[in-house]
Each structure stands twice: as C-alpha cells, then as structure tokens.
Design brief:
Layout lengths: L3 H12 L3 H5 L2 H14 L9 H22 L5 E4 L2 E4 L4 H15 L15
Antiparallel strand pairs: 1-2
Length: 119
C-alpha cells in the first residue's frame, strides 16, 4: 500500500494546509490510496512519486467535492448596481490536478478497458 504519510504530506502541499486539517479528511486519503493501489500494474510502483501525487490528487478531488457540497447556500447576490458572486471552482481545479496526475503515471496503471481479442 502507498505510504500514507507521504500522501498526507503531498496533500498538505496541494491544499496549502496544516496536518491538523488534513487529519480531518483521513478517510478520503486512505480511500484514495486503496483505489490507486488497485489500479497499479505492479505493486513495486506503490511508493513512486507519481503514485503518491496521484493518491493525494484523488483525495483532494474528493475533499473539494465535499467542501463544495457543504457550501450550497447563496452563490450570488445583487442589490441595485452592486452584485456579488461566489466562484466555486475548487472542484474544477481539483479535477485538473487529478487529470494531470493520472496523465503523469498512466504507464504505471493497469489498463482496465475491455479488449476483445478473438472468438
């Protein structure tokens, strides 16, 4: 299994937060590590930097979705000439980080697409 401490450190860098804040999301970090581990071509890749980053990016994406779901209140307000809009682009930014991480380690992940070889 990918080293949890390394993933947690990477996630702290991505989220620009403290260890205490990351600790609140421990279940998402563990889940991301398990999911990515199951996708590896070879277990020897589990602690490579690209895989650690992928685990952190996957956890970050889940966390951003949870945070945005919790902020489902007022998104914009307008009074006369004054308007205020909240930009909830955290999950879209997290999705870009995740896609980039997947691209970086595509050669380390098993191809899970169905292949029809012969009859």
């Amino acid at each position: 299994m990918t080293d949890y401490g390394s993933v947690k450190n990477e996630l702290m860098l991505i989220m620009e937060c403290s260890e205490d804040e990351v600790q609140k999301y421990e279940i998402y970090v563990q889940n991301a590590c398990c999911c990515v581990f199951d996708l590896l071509k070879n277990e020897e890749y589990e602690n490579r930097a690209e895989i650690v980053h992928l685990c952190a990016a996957k956890a970050f994406y889940k966390i951003s979705l949870i945070k945005e779901a919790g902020n489902s209140g007022v998104k914009s307000f307008k009074a006369g000439d004054i308007s205020y809009t909240v930009d909830n682009s955290l999950s879209s930014a997290a999705e870009k980080v995740l896609k980039d991480a997947v691209a970086d380690c595509r050669n380390l992940l098993a191809d899970d697409e169905f292949v029809f070889k012969a009859v």
